[in-house]
């Protein structure tokens, strides 16, 4: 497993000073993808669910290390570019949310044991096409009753909650609540390194890897590395007969049977990033092909549905899907657009932040046109009031993706297209504190993707707050 190492090199990104580390010489990563494989298409893939072949998008001329992951919040407000009032408000909100999670954990150590999920069918004409971003929060599940052992959703939410508890307090690892949660998670481990079973295995395994990466006793162990290897194998590529010229290539989805989507793919890349893998690893570079095909950017995406706004849709697979197109009444596949209008798919907030951070995880330069185009979309659609393109749907998944993306992009402030300057940490803290319930929890009145479940939404809110409170070592003083 390749770890982050090398000397620091300074770059200017998106108008702000950003520090990255070069890991490959110019041109070293720009290798030609393999030709169409001779291997037959995996029988689990329905050929009709793969869109028209198109040339693979360009690989980077060099791969850069992103900001390394941080596994704990700062110990002092001066380590974070926010004022002390916002620090105090965030810490109070964090404590309230943690108290709620501790009270909500069941005796066996898990959260949301009563909830299960299954991905809905996909494709034009599918019944109840609700799937959207990946998981119990932006992903697509219909709620069903669950029996023992814990359902995949319960395992995933338990991993999210455990991660939130550990990031807030290094000593939490020794508490009964965290030990019980870890025990239940580890009891679900498969011999191949995967966690859970069924269609949500990729998502559950990714959340577990991110959680265990925060625990010193598991980091760098064979147990964690086996799960990392499983995630790498779960990516669609030439080993399953998928060519770089096909729209499934480099993506991950609901299990190995479902078509890939950006939400599952970004969860995989986030897990590999949290586990400390270098972006020069093949899994990251294969994913760049899928990420580029998911972006509305004609210079790097040859799909007929692509516009040029720089944002991201849900998936390019099977000729593309967007939850924002569905929300706008144009059909999830753009099939309900007005007669005579060229088919296009709408970008939206949660997937654009997912794409932006994933490109940085994969080592794209901040000067790459794909990164810049995504950032310009973010500047044009700056808001904490909604998930742009989806209204209130997936709002807390959006907050979490946004916080992760802006931290790894090292954007301490964002200047929107009207010229207004935004300290995203302070604005995120304000948005979350305002929405916190009296019992310390958070819940979304838009219940799609299980965001009506306070345990899940509280975990996402805490994780977003923690991204805002992680230390920024370059900031020695609180800004004036």
How would you describe the overall organization of this protein?
There is one protein chain. The strands form 4 sheets. The protein has a 3-stranded antiparallel β-sheet, with no helix packed on it. The chain has a two-stranded antiparallel sheet with strand order 4-5. A hairpin with a 2-residue loop joins strand 1 and strand 2 (16-22). It is mainly α. It has helices spanning 84-104, 152-168, 176-187, 201-212, 222-233, 262-274, 282-294, 323-327, 349-361, 369-380, 395-408, 424-435, 454-469; strands at 9-13, 16-22, 64-65, 115-119, 141-145, 252-253, 260-261, 414-415, 421-422. It starts with 8 loop residues before the first strand and ends in an 11-residue tail after the last helix. Helix 2 (152-168) packs antiparallel against helix 3, helix 9 packs parallel to helix 11 and helix 12 runs antiparallel to helix 13. It is globular. The chain has a single domain (10-29, 55-469), classed as Alpha/alpha barrel (Glycosyltransferase), CATH 1.50.10.
Unreliably modeled segments: 1-38, 117-147, 474-480
CATH level 1 class label: Mainly Alpha
Task: Output the CATH topology.
Answer: Glycosyltransferase
Number of strands: 9
Structural class: mainly alpha
Written as H for each helix and E for each strand, in order along the chain, the element string is EEEHEEHHHHEEHHHHHHEEHH
Ordered list of secondary-structure elements with their pairings:
Elements: E1 9-13, E2 16-22, E3 64-65, H1 84-104, E4 115-119, E5 141-145, H2 152-168, H3 176-187, H4 201-212, H5 222-233, E6 252-253, E7 260-261, H6 262-274, H7 282-294, H8 323-327, H9 349-361, H10 369-380, H11 395-408, E8 414-415, E9 421-422, H12 424-435, H13 454-469
Antiparallel strand pairs: 1-2, 2-3, 4-5, 6-7, 8-9
Helix pairs in contact: 1-12, 1-13, 2-3, 2-4, 2-13, 4-5, 4-6, 6-9, 7-9, 9-10, 9-11, 11-13, 12-13
